[in-house]
Amino acid sequence: MPSASTVIIGTGAYTPSRILTNAELARLVDTSDEWIVTRSGIRERRIAADDELTSDMAVAAGRAALADAQLTPADVDLLIVATVTPDMPMPAAACLVQHKLGLPTTAACFDINAACTGFLYALDTACAMVASGRYRHALVIGAEKMSSIVDWKDRTTCVLFGDGAGAVVIRGSDQAGIGLLGTRLGTHGNGAQALRVRDNVITMQGREVYKSAIRVMDEAARSILEQQGIAAHQIALVIPHQANLRIIEAVAQYLKLPLERFFINVDKYGNTSAASIPIALDEARRAGRVQPGDLNLLVAFGAGLTYGSALIRW
Questions:
Q1: Residues 229, 233, 236, CA angle at the centre, nearest 5°?
Q2: pLDDT tens digits, residue range 173-194?
Q3: Domain with CATH 3.40.47.10 in the chain
Q4: Beta carbons within 10 angstroms of residue 199's beta carbon
């Protein structure tokens, strides 16, 4: 937990222009719009162009977040990119983003791989580093080109994922009681085989992932609320990882919150892994669903099996 207040002062997102609908997927694999929507709630997803890299999408989202924060690249002294699909194994995607975005060469830049929970891990890390006083402005980006690791012949996985990037800008604050109030991060490593990349494609034990996701997201949400002494009904908006509408519905039932209290865009983008929550957060802000004084709960699960939650007061 940060020892001083850290606040989000800007958000941004980018999604590729190409839309891949369920009807188009049905021409590639044995599936249908009804089958996909019934099981996941997904109707379409964005697919990056062949020459569009994860770092390119990260730069676009980062640039939008900096503009929203009314800062320039020169103001950033910390960059963290959460991704499982970097342009290459080495160097880190953050190094490429630093160069393309024009951040100072004195900025600390590195990647985090916690799969779909990656943005929350990166957010917690950045807030702790800013709260330490060593850094002034952090740019945190979740960016994924999931289409590059999908087996387009496997109907159980290829229908679920999409590409995109989302970003936030963080700075310290001397105002208590706002910003990142706390986080809860964890890992169940015994579930690592349920969702992984093997031979450069995603493999998933769907039933096991579904059950585990509901359990750990509920656990993470309840834990952070208990930690902060906050009741679920006090949350103005929950921004969950957008993996599957049925998972989100189950979490809403466990928390005894109406589904209307959850921001949902999985129908438009599918599962964009580490980009999921920051894209949703940016859309929620721009739609007017995040207001000053609001309490927001962010909650996610991912391969590993990682999970996490964050509580933010605006």
A1: 100
A2: 988 889 999 999 999 999 999 9
A3: 5-173, 179-313
A4: 7
